Amino acid sequence: xxxxxxxxxxxxxxxxxxxxxxxxxxxxxxxxxxxxxxxxxxxxxxxxxxxxxxxxxxxxxxxxxxxxxxxxxxxxxxxxxxxxxxxxxxxxxxxxxxxxxxxxxxxxxxxxxxxxxxxxxxxxxxxxxxxxxxxxxxxxxxxxxxxxxxxxxxxxxxxxxxxxxxxxxxxxxxxxxxxxxxxxxxxxxxxxxxxxxxxxxxxxxxxxxxxxxxxxxxxxxxxxxx
Length: 226
Hints:
With 226 residues, this protein is of the alpha/beta class. The protein has one domain: 2-Layer Sandwich (BirA Bifunctional Protein, domain 2), CATH 3.30.930.10. Helix content is 21%, strand content 27%. The chain has 3 helices and 11 strands. The strands form 2 sheets. Strands 1, 2, 6, 7, 8, 9, 10 and 11 form an 8-stranded mixed beta sheet that branches. It has a 3-stranded mixed beta sheet with strand order 4-3-5, with no helix packed on it.
């Protein structure tokens, strides 16, 4: 049987959060019943905060922007212009039904894209969620956050990668509940933050184009709340 290719969607203007949630709900239902293709959606949001299923009220420091309950794993995060949101609506039943491997594939996707396109050595940290760039002083700055939800082995939500957002907007929350480290972006690291270039690089390094099981790293243990 020929497997339909993944649909790539691009939205040039910021998409309201409620609109994005509605789209994902409909698409995930369609993937489950076989009436719709898998989808990877690249977009931006207006400034807002989202609360994952593990969010703690004391991590919301200054709700200067709307706050939404996201239904994904993880804690508080920020979304806004200059940040590439990547929503992944994929059938994990076709990829081995391994949530840990899926989360790791998302992490590796970001790491590979940053290295190949921008010569940034990003990494993951045991016990800390997301993708990090070492500062060289024993601390790291987060450049990408990951939070997913799974329904009947179909994923939604996904990751956010900082191209050139206003990093001051993160001051309204404790990002992902981590106080000891900061946040960064392509622009803050002196790299080209052009979104078209970033989108092209993300599509080039996407690990989900093949219909085969994903292979988890054996040394790490992760949950869907990443």
